[in-house]
Design brief:
Layout (H helix, E strand, L loop, with lengths): L10 H21 L20 H13 L3 H13 L3 H21 L1
Helix pairs in contact: 2-3, 3-4
Amino acid sequence: MRSTLFIRPNLKLFLLGAALIAGLQHLITNGHSQAPVVVVAAGMATSHAMSEGELKRMIEQASVRPSAGAYLRLSHCFERRRDYKQAISYLRKAEACAQREEFNE
């Protein structure tokens, strides 16, 4: 008598099923994610190309016309230069300025 308990399984179906599961898992985790969008505002130079004079000019413009956007650009520039203390300082100024602008509207 032959026992059907030890018959070899169909390995092609197991391989096809594993490939299908791996493909679905890849689509679920990576298929619906969006690439990060990089938005460069007008007048915002990269920190590598920005000289000390340009940075001082931006600081002067922000002190003459304080706005949340100007302070955010300065914060971003200092963050790119890895001067995190200044970056946080300008970020706090931007938050305060945004609250004032929101209150005045």
